């Protein structure tokens, strides 16, 4: 297993409108082998405000990784992804799409919008937890994330 130096916790932004999916993701990340802080917002507008430190999100940490649902109320995940990847200050942050959609068009569009990864949420709770563990292990342990 690869271990990374524990200089500072890895900051993760979860953009997810389903409280049950968010709770499973938070649980999956809470038992990580390296320190991480997971911040949760429930819609696209809040995600953009968080990333730009606007409104109630002043002085929040810049995420090292973003977990983004596609099907959000209001500003959807595709629009959030477009905003992130078109902003020179944000585009280097890896974005993992985590969604229930298996639609080939959604997958292709997400990659065309520069998503770093596309993961389909399993329906089964145990498989969902396993997928979250795989995301956590890859992005927090194996991958090297860009420095701020």
Entry keywords:
single chain, about 150 residues, alpha/beta, 5-stranded parallel β-sheet, 5 strands, disordered N terminus
Beginning-to-end CA distance, first to last residue: 25 Å
Question: Which strand order do you get reading across the main beta sheet?
Answer: 2-1-3-4-5
How helix-rich are the residues, as a percent range? 25-40%
Radius of gyration: 14 Å
Q: By helix and strand content, what is the structural category?
A: alpha/beta
Order of helices and strands: EHEHEHEHEH
Poorly predicted tracts of residues: 1-6
Number of helices: 5
For the sheet with most strands, the description reads: 5 strands, parallel
- The outline comes out as globular
- Percent of sequence in beta strands: 15-25%
Tally of extended strands?
5
The pLDDT mean sits at 91
């Amino acid at each position: 297993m690869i271990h990374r130096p524990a200089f500072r916790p890895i900051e993760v932004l979860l953009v997810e409108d389903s409280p049950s999916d968010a709770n499973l993701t938070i649980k999956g990340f809470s038992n990580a082998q390296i320190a991480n802080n997971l911040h949760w917002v429930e819609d696209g507008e809040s995600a953009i405000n968080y990333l730009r430190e606007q409104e109630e999100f002043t002085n929040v940490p810049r995420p090292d990784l973003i977990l983004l649902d596609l099907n959000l109320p209001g500003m959807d995940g595709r629009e959030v992804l477009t905003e992130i990847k078109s902003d020179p200050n944000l585009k280097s942050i890896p974005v993992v799409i985590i969604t229930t959609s298996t639609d080939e068009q959604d997958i292709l569009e997400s990659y065309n919008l520069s998503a770093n990864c596309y993961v389909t949420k399993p329906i089964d709770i145990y498989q969902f937890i396993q997928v979250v563990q795989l995301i956590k292990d890859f992005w927090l342990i194996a991958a090297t994330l860009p420095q701020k």
